[in-house]
Design goal:
The protein has 599 residues and is an alpha+beta fold. It is built from 21 helices and 23 strands.
């Protein structure tokens, strides 16, 4: 295993030899290398002054060298060279990330990199951004054309520490992630939900991303080994333990862990935070945390609506409008109300008390009701269970833009009862069903940001006062006048929360400014064996990297369903690259069916 340590002055001559061998690896001729030698030489006195570190393999051999030079807030990556025999083994990646980590500790906020032309692909893959500012020539002592060299290429990175909210979430350290999605959903199961909660076991794969850096993943179903290896590579994780295949049916995942005393002791005895998808009574027993009756009461849509109304009654939220909501006694009462609203030309939203990803929510325009044969016909086609009737909030067309329609605020309440803001996100919602979300700088438009943040924070304070502890979100739809209508809270982790975790990790790993998009379902053109799925994901990672983006497979197990699909994350520093990366992933995933010929 390769590790990084401080260089020693006595190694200076040997390190100079490594640097020259690494430079020669790119095929430069002797004259060019001789011209470079004075500038690339490492002297004994440089080792401390230039903050030189080395990468050392398990046999004690030095296989790489890097330096961090200058004073905050601006510094330079003076050296980063790898022994030719170790190229392609992750040594350069390890050294670069160590430089970025040390830069953060020193207070550096601008890291300048003058790259050899042959290394530009590496720095792009590491997240550095090319800049127009001219760099120094590669060999100032020799004409580039004569020596076979070219000008250096300048990159920059913006080192940042892990976000404040992420440090507060898990204390700044690693955590054990429990993929108890099905167990959480089962607390609220009604006729609108899949009894077996089979999709929930796929979404348990999101346990990989419950915090920016897991120590262990605990999963109900087996997951592909290649998936965990690729995720760890893309997010710079090491030493992540995976405990999968623990559950085929009831009991829930927390009970399945408790039924294995040695595993339960291992997971709970390490002193690491135990992070679930959501709180359950069984999780409380596993974590040694007393369960409080009613702490999830605002998971109910009608209870959340009541909470929103009480907050608005106190004033101070002019950018928020609350849609009217009625709880109806029986299906015929719902049909009569729906019919009356349809005759008045009003659109309606029918909701169950609880739902997952939009399940149990139906948006009905007058045209759709008439096309279905009337209100009673609509109700007969819906799953059985209690219903809420809610006023439909019109869209943003009157603002004259194509701005986002569905937004969300994410935050959490820590164990001491303090509410923390994480941020806002834009969701993709189709016909009431969640499809994905995007987080990052500038995602939430300026007209919505203040209202969303203030109201989300107010909900967080109320949840804290009610005794709730854990992650939460508040979902909104934008109306036609620039106001936001809150529609529900989710007292658990969510798709947007996963994107926030990955954004925090990538910012700390590669520099600030990442946009992250989670796409709930990317259709696959065919079911693939596990090895071919690994190949596809590796190819998608390479393709996105060429665009300047990062690809992370989020949900691999859906690929083995009769109608195969993947959940994915893509990240970039600009909207155009992010959109291009998503388009690439969707096109390549769908195209896998072509290899099998016509069906």
């Amino acid at each position: 295993m390769v590790k990084v340590r401080a260089a020693r002055p006595a190694e200076a001559e040997d390190l100079t030899g490594l640097v020259m061998r690494s430079k020669a690896h790119w095929g430069y001729d002797a004259a060019f290398l001789a011209a470079c030698a004075p500038e690339l030489r490492i002297r004994a006195g440089d080792v401390t002054a230039r903050r030189v570190v080395v990468a050392e393999n398990g046999r004690g051999e030095v296989v790489g060298v890097a330096s961090l030079e200058g004073t905050p807030p601006r510094a330079e990556l003076g050296l980063l060279f790898v022994e030719p025999s170790a190229v392609g083994q992750g040594v350069g990646r390890l050294l670069y990330r160590d430089v970025l980590r040390r830069a953060v500790e020193l207070g550096v906020r601008r890291l300048v990199i003058d790259s050899d032309p042959h290394a530009t692909g590496f720095y792009r893959a590491m997240g550095a951004v090319p800049v127009a500012e001219p760099a120094a020539p590669a060999a100032p002592a020799a004409p580039a054309a004569e020596a076979g060299g070219t000008a250096l290429v300048r990159f920059e990175a913006a080192p940042v520490p892990l976000a404040d909210w992420a440090r507060a979430w898990t204390g700044g350290g690693r955590a054990v992630h429990l993929g108890n999605v099905g167990e959480f959903n089962a607390q609220f199961a009604d006729a609108t939900l899949d009894r077996e909660q089979r999709p929930a076991h796929h979404y348990a794969c999101l346990a990989a991303f419950y915090s920016p850096y897991p120590a262990a993943l605990v999963l109900p179903r087996p997951v592909p080994r290649g998936w965990t290896e690729l995720v760890c590579r893309q997010l710079g994780w090491t030493g992540v333990e995976v405990y999968d295949g623990l559950l085929d049916a009831d009991p829930g995942l927390a009970e399945a862990v408790r039924a294995r005393p040695a595993l339960a002791a291992l997971l709970t005895g390490a002193g690491l935070p135990l992070v679930p998808w959501g709180r359950t009574r069984a999780f409380g027993r596993l974590a040694g945390r007393p369960w409080q009756d009613g702490e999830l009461r605002y998971e109910s849509k009608s209870a959340a609506h009541g909470l929103f109304g009480r907050i608005l009654a106190d004033g101070g939220h002019p950018g928020i409008v609350l849609p009217r909501q009625w709880r109806v006694d029986g299906r015929w009462a719902a049909a009569r109300m729906l019919a009356a609203r349809t005759r008045a030309g009003e659109s309606t939203v029918l909701k169950s008390e609880h739902g997952v990803g939009g399940s149990g929510t139906t948006v009905l325009t007058p045209a759709r009701v008439r096309a279905a044969g009337g209100a009673r016909a609509v109700l007969r086609r819906l799953p059985r269970g209690p219903l809420l009737v809610e006023e439909y909030v019109g869209g943003a067309a009157s603002r004259g833009d194509e701005g986002p329609r569905d937004l969300t605020y994410d935050g959490f309440v820590d164990e001491a009862g303090r509410a923390h803001e994480v941020g806002g996100a834009v969701m993709e919602v189709a016909d009431g069903c969640y499809r994905g979300a995007t987080v990052g700088p500038g995602v939430v438009p300026g007209w919505a940001e203040k209202s969303l943040t203030a109201f989300g924070a107010a909900v967080g304070r109320e949840l804290a006062d009610s005794g709730y502890r854990g992650w939460f979100d508040v979902d909104f739809v934008a109306d036609g006048t620039g106001r936001l209508a809150p529609t529900e809270t989710n007292l658990r982790l969510t798709g947007p929360s996963i994107a926030f975790m990955v954004a925090a990790r990538l910012d700390a790993l590669r520099g600030a400014g990442h946009l992250v998009r989670i796409a709930d379902r990317v259709e696959l053109g065919a079911r693939l064996p596990e090895a071919q799925l690994d190949e596809l994901c590796a190819a998608l990672a390479r393709g996105c990297a060429e665009l300047g983006a990062v690809f992370v497979p989020a949900i691999p197990t859906g690929a083995f369903e009769p109608a195969p699909w993947l959940g994915v994350l893509v990240a970039a520093r600009g909207r155009e690259v992010l959109d291009a990366a998503e388009a690439l992933v969707r096109a390549e995933a769908l195209a896998v069916g072509a290899m099998f010929g016509p069906t």
